[in-house]
Amino acid sequence: MADPSGTRATRRRRRAELEIAAAVARERLVAAHVEQALSLIEGAGNRLSPQRALAIYARLHRLGSQEAKFISNRTLAILGERVARSPLGAPAGDGAGEAGDPLADSPRSLLQQIRHRLRGRTQHELRRWVELHTGRAEVALLEVHVDNALRFVNVLGPERSVAEAVEEYTATIGVRPTLTEVIYYLVLDRLARAAAPEEIPAVPKPHRPEPQAVNPTKHGLRILKDRGPSRREFRGGSRPGPRAAPDDAGPA
User: Which residues pair with 33 in a beta bridge?
Assistant: First the structure.
């Protein structure tokens, strides 16, 4: 009979390992979001304020209000630290920023970026760049999700299937359902690449018949040869009649 206390201890240990894996996963996702948000702000330059860029980022990547606020605060804090270490930062009390401007003390003002409205071609190019950045960021975040899900697969071990481990991860972290299946397939691909060749089932190659020469007789076509020009006749048709006499032939 199995020891119940040993089973409960195993479950508690596994639950603790999952909590640690979840904490690591959340921190890695936040770090990835901050990195991509910084990239968006830096790429937009003076065409978007940091606050506006962060709002766009949160909307495009479907961040919750609390998550968006946390990522925005961390991103702005990193921007402020970079400006403080930069010799190009505006010194305090030099009159940078207008009085009463809510952005006067923001990293954007310290970086001496000018706020302006987007018009015409500039707006179109910016939207295009933001769209491309969003795709690149989503792919980078998917890679982080795969690494995090693999950690759950290792913690749960062989007692749980890969699909169950991925579902446990996405439910714990709060990944949107549309990404769960994609993460699952990427995890399988990563596991297959790391597995030994004998562990991967062979995929049978599709059978492709060799091309064969066309047989005219097989297709109902018979070639009749005589002393005159060659004639063709379809099998099953009427038999050919006697050859017509030449026009200059006289009566028999």
Answer: none
